[in-house]
Each structure stands twice: as C-alpha cells, then as structure tokens.
C-alpha cells in the first residue's frame, strides 16, 4: 500500500516514477520482509479465520448456474419417468429448457403440458409461443402467433405474452407499440413484476421516437 502511494505521489507531481521513489520502495520491501521473518508466526491470541475445504461445501455451491439448471432438468426427467402424466412437471421441464436456450425441447415439453392441462391456460400458450419465437430466431410463425393470441384471449394481461409482444415490437422498430404494451404491463397489479426494468425499456424506446 505504501509503495503504491509513493508511486502515485511521484507520478502526480513529476509525471514519472523518480529514482528516489524506487529506492524508498525497495527499502519498504526489505523492511516488510525482514519484519515478517522476525515475527516468525502470528501471535497466539490472533483470531484465525476458519478454513473450509472445498470438499466440505454442498455440491450446489460449487456448481455454475448452467450446471445447476442441468441438474434440475435431470431431476425433473427422473420424476417424469415415474409420472409421465404430470402436466406441471412437463411445464417445469419446459422452463428449465428455456433457461438453457434449448427452445425445441422446451416447445415439446410445453406441448405435453398443454395436452395434460385440465383446461386451457394462458401461461402455457405464451410459453409455447415464446419457445417457438426464439427457436425461429426471434420471428413469429403463424402457429406461434396463434398461440400468443390464444394466451392473450385467455388473459389480456398475461405478463409473459405481453413482454414477448413488446420485445418483438421494439425489435421491429415499432417503438410506440412497444411503449404502449410495456405501459399495459405496468398498469397491471402484478407484485412480482420488475417495474424498474420495464420503465427502463420504455425510456429506451422513447429515445428512438
């Protein structure tokens, strides 16, 4: 720390590191090493921080986000082998595939969830539309457009459907439509909505108008 301050001071006033600065740094380095050698070890009353071996940590704490998601996919697949008619598990599997950008697999899982659902659900239709949209490199097909419309017909304020729609409007330079759709999202009473992010998106779109 002292060395860094000396270099900074020398450079600030002389615009270069002077020889005297280098000499002082050398002295400080020798003193530091000598002092450490003289002490030999830390005093007995020094509070030592516990060292935790990596092997002692839970496996999940050593895994990356993608590894954790892959583990979740495998766990859901294991459960589905025992209960293939569980629509909620298929929906969860689709979401896990979406996280890892496996859009085709996600679409297949969502389709099973739709077939097993006791009644039409807007979330499943919007999920299917989203998976297809990204599988097609951020383009709507007639089928994904129909799924999106079905989702909004069941729930005009479905957040995931509206977010997908607003994103597509923005991507295609339809900025006012994107703003209006994001505003519709803000007008909902959803408590799990990241309103700051939506407001930022609106402000970004306004800069293009």
TrEMBL record:
Asked if the Swiss-Prot or TrEMBL record annotates the protein with the keyword Aminoacyl-tRNA synthetase, the reply is no
What positions does the domain Cytochrome c-type biogenesis protein H TPR occupy?
A: 76-187
Q: Where are the transmembrane segments?
A: 20-39
One GO biological process term is: cytochrome complex assembly
Keywords, A to Z, come to: Cytochrome c-type biogenesis, Membrane, Repeat, TPR repeat, Transmembrane, Transmembrane helix
List the Pfam families. TPR_CcmH_CycH
* Protein name as catalogued: Nitrite reductase
Protein source organism: Photobacterium lutimaris
């Amino acid at each position: 720390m002292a060395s860094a301050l000396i270099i900074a001071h020398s450079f600030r006033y002389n615009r270069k590191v002077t020889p005297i600065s280098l000499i002082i740094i050398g002295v400080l380095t020798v003193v530091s090493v000598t002092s450490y050698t003289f002490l030999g070890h830390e005093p007995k009353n020094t509070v030592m921080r516990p060292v935790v071996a990596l092997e002692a940590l839970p496996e999940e704490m050593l895994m990356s986000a993608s590894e954790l998601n892959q583990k979740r996919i495998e766990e859901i697949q294991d459960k589905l082998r025992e209960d293939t008619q569980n629509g909620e598990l298929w929906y969860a599997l689709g979401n896990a595939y979406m996280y890892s950008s496996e859009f085709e697999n996600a679409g297949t899982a969502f389709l099973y969830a739709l077939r097993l659902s006791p009644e039409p659900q807007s979330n499943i239709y919007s999920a299917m539309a989203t998976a297809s949209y990204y599988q097609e490199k951020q383009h709507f097909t007639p089928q994904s457009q129909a799924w999106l419309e079905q989702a909004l017909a069941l729930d005009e304020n479905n957040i995931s459907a509206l977010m997908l729609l607003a994103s597509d409007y923005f991507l295609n330079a339809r900025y006012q439509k994107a703003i209006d759709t994001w505003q519709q999202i803000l007008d909902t009473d959803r408590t799990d909505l990241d309103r700051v992010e939506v407001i930022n998106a609106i402000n970004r779109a306004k800069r293009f108008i």
